[in-house]
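Pair request: fold both.
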Amino acid sequence: MNRILKNSVLNDKRYALLLDALERTKHDLDSAYSNLSNALEPDLIDSYIYEVQSVQMRYKFLLERVKQIEDSYAKNPLEAGS
């Protein structure tokens, strides 16, 4: 298998894993927002604020990685990841 094809297959697997992680992170973010909106104790509210911020950062990171792969395919799908 040539180098370009190997990189393309590897990127496809990475892309699929990133999309899965992005979907799970979206679910985690929805859950964190729900927990925050239902919290009454000040310590829990603080905790959920940090959780929301943390999950938002993870979501942003994963989204940037997905966009990088999509951009590499848009430029030239045969050279993705080169």
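--- second member of the pair ---
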Amino acid sequence: MPTFQYVARDRTGKQIKGSMAGADEQAIRDQLRRKDMYVTTLALQREAAGKAFSSFRKPKVALGDMVVMSRQLATLVRAGLPLVECLYTLAGQTENPLLKRTLMEVRSDVLAGSTLTDALGKHPKIFSELYMALAQAGEVAGALDETLQVAADQLDKEQQLKENVKSAFVYPAAVVIVAVGVVFFLLTFVVPVFANVYEQFNAELPLPTKLLVVASKIITNYWYMVALSTFVGIKAFKRWEKTVKGKEMCDRIKLKMPLLGPLNRKIAISRLTRTFSAMVSAGVPILSGLETSARVTGNSVFVKVIHDAIGKVNEGVRLSVPLEMSKQFPSMVTRMISAGEESGNLDEMLRQITTFFDRDIEYAVQRLTRMLEPIMTVVLGVIVGFVLLALYMPIFNLTKVIHR
């Protein structure tokens, strides 16, 4: 939907400037007239610069922007302002151009008679299924401010989780980059010098040295083929990973990886219980909330387990039973869910599970960071040591070659 820049005057004659999204100029004039504003100038907003920039980098809305926007929207709704006014105010305050444009489009749809949930549903890349489900629950129950606050809390916790995990891999990523840089430098500049010396003496090279020399020649003479092969390989892997079979296999590997497997499982369970708890508290039907919560985990293994569990629940089986049979959840989780089902306090039990796993994830990330630092240092030392050893091994035999 295009965005227009306008200059208008209110009843007192005060000049007001701004921008608004609408189907055409007449729609913008009608919207402003309903606000007792009379247009003096109206022009289509130019977006050439934005499009040129987006060709290099796709605009996106960060979780932090969504958290701030959701909290502000909840506050404005709680204050009793009409929803269209809330959306207009938010669009004027947000600094993210994509989110600003989206809020104006949502506002236009609401003005046209659409529900907030339907309006949000037109922007699935910005508003997740969880967000739309909570918004729908709030509209139905007349507690939109509360469900928006819940959505903000969930997004805030998800952002904290991502930041904690990301910080744990800063050091390993730096070590990997340094290792690749050092090996590339050695293969490009150092190994060829040694290779020329060994060729002059017609020395018989050990197997590690031969492999190193071959790798050096490939890097220096066919670097473009290496780069192209790497690019094609990554693209092919990403395409395969998006297939149903590829994603399922990758997700299973993520859960069984040494060191990272237990952490990935805890993160998936934490996302599941956090989202499910929020949706149960907001009054979303349990099965619908459970299905949405499964997709939020981002792991197809848990999606399949929850899908099977929903089928069992429809047959009259308690939720904790199929979850325990799947062997994907710790016994503590299934027992607490069972206790919540028996006491009718499932949302509170889910909150307690989430709190426990959030703390456990934090400790696990700290332990993983402490473990990865020495491991990556050793790996870097082994790689560089192997290269240097392979280079100097023939030197020990040069005296025999020279005497010949």
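Observation on the second member. Confidence is low (pLDDT under 50) at residues 47-56.
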